[in-house]
Amino acid sequence: MTQRLGTVAAAASFAMLLFMACSTPGAALSPIGGHCTADSDCAEGWCGDDGCTPKQPNGAACTSDDQCTSGTCTDLACYPLPNGAYGCTTDSDCESHMCACNNCVSVKMQPNGACCTADDQCQTGVCYAGLGRVCGAQPDGSPCKRDEDCTSGVCPGGGTETGVVCGALANDWDCTRDKDCEDGVCFDSRCGQGPNGPCSQDTDCQQCLDGNCGESSCAGDSDCGPGGACQNGYCAHLLCLGGKCEFPQPDGTPCTKPAMCAAGTCVGGKCG
After folding, report:
1. pLDDT over 50 at 15, yes or no
2. Fewer Cβ atoms within 10 A, N terminus or C terminus of the chain?
């Protein structure tokens, strides 16, 4: 009887030890490639069709969050996406936190002509904002919204105007800044030489009003347009006098030709 009880006790102890061994955490977990029926059966990775499978890097295909190292599976890919990956819609979708036209990019990664949404994505530091969004400034004649859009560095108005193209303006075009004009002078909101502007001939100083560059009758300076003055009932435009643009001179001023004088006469070397 005593021997039988001893045998039963030994069997019970063995069963308890076997249970403890099998129930000890991690004791029965499978390695990569090992058999599994659930993720919890794997020492690492997740349980796939081929057994325990390594977690996938960012950008790899997935069907659930637990398959990704990042713990996030979105649109059948592990997020955030690596540089060069396609499919992002916001900066947060990318490891670089920079999404350009659905592609993950890094700072100054995009060459000229590549799609962009911000300046710092481009190697040149310029994301053209005219028509479309591509890296690199554009030649004169291209639609523009800011000076940086243009290889010449001039977008008339500097972004304040609409419907403009790259390139400085010829005389008599409306302007807001000196750099908008080919001659570098914006006088009374029109390109052209104003008073005291440098010149070598009268035409350097001339500004036209509604296509009329000659004399016309007037009642006041405002009738003569930018660069003009109403003198003796007629518009007098700037002349090139001594290397700078000036209005016709009053009586008594030294002169060499009648056109230099407001009165229209030059007698004995003086106006009047």
Report:
1. no
2. N
